[in-house]
Amino acid sequence: MRRSLLVLGAACSVASRCWGGSFPFDPLTIPTLIVHDRGTGSGCFIQASNSVYLFTAKHVLFAERVGTNQPALLSQRAVARTYAVTGATNATERVFGLDLAQLLSLGNIRCSTNRDVVLVRVEDCNPTNYALARTLPGFTCVTPSGSLDAYPQAAIACPFKEVDVGADVYMFGYPTSLTAPIAGCFDPAQPLLRKGIVAGVNRSGRTIIVDSPAYQGNSGGPVVQVSHPSFEVTTFKIIGLVSAFVPFQEEWENKTLRYSHVIVSNSGYTIIEPIDIALELVWK
Q: Per-10-residue mean pLDDT for the chain, 284 residues long?
């Protein structure tokens, strides 16, 4: 199978164009929608170490660990929907089937033991020509134009130590939980972007907080940092994957009847798992 590679980290020669909010790539092609019978999530395909992986949050595919047992798959199968651009044509949808049970049994699913990150290895690349790839058992093309065609390389990952507090970021994903109350306002089969900033970095805990709200369905989606190393150069690099929103808790108390009620809402901040953690799973 032959395809091209998408490089997000390419510099944009006209700074004003990037500041205006446009990308040197089609934003449709970055995130992936993951659907199974227990829910939905987001992710992204990335080529690293002679293979193509689907990166996402662990809780998108696995249930919470019980005791010392290994976490169990939420569903035996899933569908991955993404977009790809071939040549100069518009982005078209690509649909893939994931036999998660088979991929897991063959050792092609790698989970972090203590972080909300999982990788699904779906293709092998020719070591001398990454444009040539072999689909692995358990990963099948559903659409007629089934190949991925283009996907980011690990080289566009921004190391945790280079994440800048205050930098602009874009959150890519499929917040499918928003569709019910505003059905018809947008196409749930297409991703939505949120723009924010890096609000903080926890060096000891290796977590990133962004000032951008995430909702159910955003989990596992990539977050891209916009950097300006010089006046005429702008780069776009993936800093991590959406893990969870930061909750805001209110407690209401009825002193007369002596009971209270706790309300937990979305604070508008989101926890991001650094891309370094996902890449560590690739190299292990």
A: 61 39 81 96 93 96 82 96 76 93 97 95 83 89 76 86 96 86 74 95 96 96 92 90 93 85 90 96 86
Which residue reads 């058992």 in tokens?
A: 137
Name the pTM for this structure: 0.89
Sign of CA dihedral 277, 76, 246, 179: positive
Distance between CA atoms of 47 and 53, rounded to whole angstroms? 6
Query: What 3-state DSSP class applies to 47?
Result: strand
Under 8 Å between Cβ of 238 and 277: no
Token reading at 279:
């890449």
CATH architecture of 15-283: Beta Barrel (2.40)
Contact 74, 101 (CB under 8 A): no
Q: Which amino acid is at 140?
A: T
55/118 Cα distance (integer angstroms):
6
Residue 6 CA neighbour count, 13 Å, CB half: 28
Do 147 and 141 meet the contact criterion of CB atoms below 8 Å apart?
Answer: yes
